Amino acid sequence: MLLLALDTATPAVTVALREADGAGGRTLAASHQVDARRHGELLLPAVDRVLAEADRPLSEVDALVVGVGPGPYTGLRVGLATAAAFGAALNLPVHGVCTLDGLAYASGLREPFVVATDARRKEVYWARYADARTRVGDPAVDRPGDLPADVAALPAAGAGARLYPESFPDVRKDLPAEQSAEALAQLAAERLAAGAELLPPRPLYLRRPDAEVPANYKVVTPQ
User: Fold this and answer.
1) Cα separation of 195 and 197, whole Å?
2) Strands 94-97 and 63-67, sheet pairing
3) Per-residue model confidence as pLDDT tens digits over 27-58
4) Whole-structure pTM value
5) Beta strand 134-142 with 156-157: parallel, antiparallel or unpaired?
6) Phi, psi of 178 (to 5 degrees)
């Protein structure tokens, strides 16, 4: 099975093409760029580049994997809308995976830890894990200083933890800071091979978008 994975829920615009054989397989090509303001500009060229490097046409892809967040409103929607468009055009299944799960999987840890990404507004998206494959509870968004003490004391991975070392005293700089579509694709392949049901490709926002209609907005109606 040929999986095309992508994620734009963090500042990373990441794409990977994976040839999955049950829980095994190999990554054929990958692209990884970090730019929080250019998701829409970078994603499709990255997909083209990955397919060209792997020498595989888009028509050979069997399924898509997309990070569903949590993440900021605009960037997250770029990846989800692109995956949905490919899925509709090619009549392919589109599988969602929590972005934090991808980062956790890439850590390879076998002990309890926490993953945190930058949620802006001086907040982090975070989740607790028993190991690299097992999330404990749902993702959440909080100010770093408001995290439960037992969570903050855990080894921490992710760019959000690195931004607030005073709140994550055991931040692990040897672990990945940004999302990787390679890890996302490998995790999805493992779960599919095990018969697990993946998430629907819908955004996991956790809070309202930054852009809102002004409270005193005056509607002008035609005469």
Assistant:
1) 7
2) parallel
3) 999 999 999 899 999 999 999 999 999 999 99
4) 0.90
5) unpaired
6) -115, 160
Q: Write the single-letter amino acid at 160.
A: G
Of 149, 146, 115, 147, the residue nearest 131 (C-alpha) = 115
Question: 98-117 pLDDT, tens per residue?
Answer: 999 999 999 999 999 999 99
- Give the tokens for residue 182: 């390679």
CA 47 to CA 81: how far, in whole Å? Answer: 14
Cα 114 versus chain centre, distance? 15
Say whether the peptide bond before residue 70 is cis (omega within 30 degrees of 0).
yes
**Contact residues for 84 (Cβ-Cβ < 8 A; gap 6+):** 94, 201
DSSP secondary structure, 20-80, as one string? EETTEEEEEEEEEEE-TT-HHHHHHHHHHHHHHHHT--GGG--EEEEE--S--HHHHHHHH
Say which residues have a Cβ less than 8 Å from residue 105's Cβ, sequence separation at least 6.
132, 133, 183, 184, 186, 187
